[in-house]
Amino acid sequence: MTTAIQQQRKERIDRGIKVRSDSIYAVMSLRELSYLGLPRIILIVGMLVLPLVVPSIYWQRVFTICCIYALLAISFDFLAHYVGLVSLGGAFFVGTGGYLAAIANTSLGLPPWLTIPLATVVGGCLCTLLLLPCLPLRGVYFAIVSLMYPLFLARLIEALDILGGTDGIMGIDSFPNRWVEQYSLIVILLLILFGVRRLVNTDLGLVLRGVMDNDQAIRASGISVTFYKSVAVFIASSMGCLSGAFLVHIYMWSGISQFALDFSIIPIAATIVGGGGTLAGPLLGCLLLVPISELLRDFGTLRIVFYALILVAFIIFRSEGLLVYGQRKYHQFERWIKI
Amino acid sequence: MKDDPILKVDGITKFFGGIQALSDVSFDVHEGEILGIIGPNGSGKTTVVNCITGFIKKSAGHVYFRGKDISRKPPHKIADMGVTRTFQIMRPYYSLPAYKNLVIPLFSPRSKRTGGWRGGGRLGDRNTVGIDILEEIGFERDSYVPYKLAATLPTGYLKRLELARCLALKPEIIICDEIFSGLSMSEIASMVPLIERLQMEGITLIMIEHRLRELFRVTDRIMVLNFGKKLIEGSPKTIMANEEVKTAYFGSQNVEEVMDHA
Amino acid sequence: MDILIYGTINSITLALYALGFAMVYGVSRLPNFAHGALYVLSGFIAWIFLNSLGVNYFFSILAAILITGVIGALIYQFVLIRVRGMEISEIMASYAIGLAILEGLRWGGFKGMTYTLPAFISGSTEIAGVPVDYQRLVVVVVGAAVVALLWIFTHYTRIGLALRGMAQDERAALMLGIDSDLMAVTAMGFGSMLAALAAILLLPLGNIVVESGYNILILAIAVCIVGGLGSWMGAVLAAFLIGFAQILTVVYLGSHFQMVVALLAIILTLIIKPSGLFGRQKELEERV
User: Fold this and answer.
1) How many domains does chain C fold into?
2) ipTM passes above 0.85
3) Do the chains contact at B87 and C286, CB–CB below 8 Å?
4) Is residue C97 part of a domain?
5) Which domains does chain B have, with CATH numbers?
6) Is the pLDDT of residue A71 over 90?
7) Torsions phi, psi for B147 (to 5 deg)
8) Inside any domain, residue C251
9) Distance between CA atoms of C196 and C40, rounded to whole angstroms?
10) Could B87 and C288 be called an inter-chain contact, meaning their C-beta atoms sit closer than 8 Å?
């Protein structure tokens, strides 16, 4: 009796239901509609219901902060995986948006529902302008400059003692009530999430992805790469400024801590853990990491060490991230076949 | 045909560090003609294209398009003016279907102005226009070829896709960098009518080629480069009879024998 | 006159900060964002040897330099080598490691302003009517010596030449039998040792504070960008430019603006000549 060594390899094939639901005919069948819609419905319903089921106000606040980080993480994922720019300084956007909202509120007396849009747009323009010099250059420069801006600005404010110096700007209005605060953020987050997912499949999104993959071909087609990179940076920085503006209204205070490392590192870690490139992965990552961060708050800055090490581990082992793994399992099945 | 050349290249010189890739290359291109550029490997053909289209900064020299100096303009501006090129190492957007590959050039300001190839001045839905262009180029519309991912297409189609990307801009000049390379005889045979059709549409072509026989079929004005210098310019007969050209390609010994065997 | 003296001191200080970073980038194209962390780490190592272990001063600083060098090499060997070539991952990974080191030190109790290293020589003197500490003189002398030694090392010794060869063209170096992985690890080791050297020279002038890790990183990067990423001599020249610019700003505008100078220097360089003074990097790679 001979024993032959079977050579096998793993093959991944789309599930039948995925193939059936890829075309317009999916609307004909409830089963396929629910296959497509279920993950999204779970996400939306889950996010809307979560504040109602968490045990205490403290955890509601944690969830709110989690949404803020999620906005940052989505903007990071968008820039990194759809445009090819790695932004190592999410804190830059948060700080800029935060301070702008604070100034608009205290010096100009505008209410939150005006300061937040204002901070978003003006902050987006400002951040894009400041990042403009490094856009025509290789990605390394963008990473370096985006990393350094929050560090610089924090020291600048401290040294020049402007904008409240180390004490920060205080006495900022908060939202009318807790529920408005909570749900306006959740709704905006969901709108932005689905909006960006649509955006990357539009023609503009294709151009941005082209900028990442193949920028020489884009130039040969008469499109200015620098211009579209600025558009992408504007979108991402506006999202970051939006989250910063929300933050100062929640805490009723704006200070240097907005330029802190947390806001730079957690979005990156959340994206890598949750699954880069999916835009919903970062949201998932935040839902995981932020509560853990709260639990670890007693350990002081150890939690940053923790994130940093997770980050390194994921980078080295090139994990695909939770959501990417989940999507793969959902859409495809694996089997061994003989060679 | 206008008397002034549509493209005037004047004294281009390019140094890469210590290596002189191009040395005082000058030539004119007239509107509506097909100019061939040939030369042995390393003679600087692709560098000329890169310098003309702004992908590489020249060390010296000027390029004039319809009288305007485009020497210092960035590549996307030059493409925007109507001087387009294909790439020798093909650069399609691999992860996108073929027709989506065209959506991106159709997004450019020039396409919006000119309506793309065949557009009457207004750009319609980019997907549709993309598929139209592909059909003109030779992708069969009824088959699934335009919808296949660019990564799965064979070389012949990808070369046509490169051309299609230029056409989406409704160009005045297309510089084809070795568009026949990597194709089988039948594929080339089917490309030649396409080239002739482009010329009939009024597009000026500059073709950089190694496949001399096919090149001589489409054009009757050739320029030869060797080691970055322009050797000679003229009709195929003149070129092939020229001693320097033969030396450049074959080396200097027993030229007749080699020619007889070729 | 005092501008000249203080300017020189400041410039050599900046050069010392930047040389380690420049070396690592020059040889292996790795932007080592853990540079500032290694600087602070070596300071604390020296402190531990000196105060907790009671070792004498000379051996403490020697130990600090060597241990930091080894740590740097190990970081490269076990972590960064796996992401070699992917620039963005290299930045993120080295940044994360630097972060882990710095915040780990902070958590480990090294907070506050109480940690200091003693100076080599205390007291001060006057040069041309300007009061200068001896320690700062030592910094200038040793700094200049380091630059000179580095030049000699990379031009005349085998390892130095190998490093320079790799910095110029990695493929060619590979073909000549230079093991690029080994050289990269060596470069990282040397770069870390340079950071440690800078630390033990400069920390006695102040306190060992975790915050300075980030500041050092910013300054080192600023100097290297202005000088051209990858050029050691460019970094030295840029250090002088920025160093004097900073001192002039302090004299005429006020000492708050020092950081602004560094930031402006980076932005101006990126706008005007992105490859820096002596940069060999093309800002837009000509990859057509």
Assistant:
1) 1
2) no
3) no
4) yes
5) 1-80+174-179+204-262 (3.40.50.300), 83-171 (3.40.50.300)
6) yes
7) -95, -5
8) no
9) 8
10) yes
Record the pTM. Answer: 0.86
What pLDDT digit, counting tens, does each position of C40-63 carry? 888 888 888 887 777 777 888 888
Touching subunits for chain C (3+ Cβ pairs under 8 A): A, B
Q: Measured between CB atoms, does C284 come within 8 Å of chain B?
A: no
The answer, yes or no, to whether residue A124 has pLDDT greater than 90, is yes
CB < 8 Å to A220, chain B = 53, 55, 75-76, 79, 84-85, 87, 165-166
Interatomic CA distance for residues A72 and A283, integer angstroms? 9
* Chain-chain contact of A219 with B92 (C-beta, under 8 angstroms): no
**Which chain B residues touch A206 with a CB distance below 8 Å?**
93, 96, 100, 103-104, 107
Q: Give me the residues of A, 71-100, that contact C with CB < 8 A.
A: 80, 86, 88
- Rounded CA-CA distance A259/C224 in Å is 24
Residue C95 domain-assigned (yes or no): yes
What range defines the domain where residue C49 resides? 13-210
For residue C7, the surrounding DSSP H or E stretch is helix C2-28
Q: Is a pLDDT exceeding 80 seen at residue C34?
A: yes
C69-88 b/e (C-beta count within 10 Å ≥ 16 → b): bebbbebbbebbbebbeebb
**Both structure tokens of B144:** 């699934």
Helix (H) or strand (E) holding B83: strand B83-85
Instruction: Please state, in angstroms and as integers, the Cα–Cα distance from residue A25 to each residue in A22, B6, B128, C40, C162, following that order.
Output: 8, 52, 21, 63, 64
In this predicted model, what pLDDT tens digit does every residue of A37-66 receive, in sequence order? Answer: 888 888 888 888 888 887 788 888 888 889
Residue C269 domain flag: no
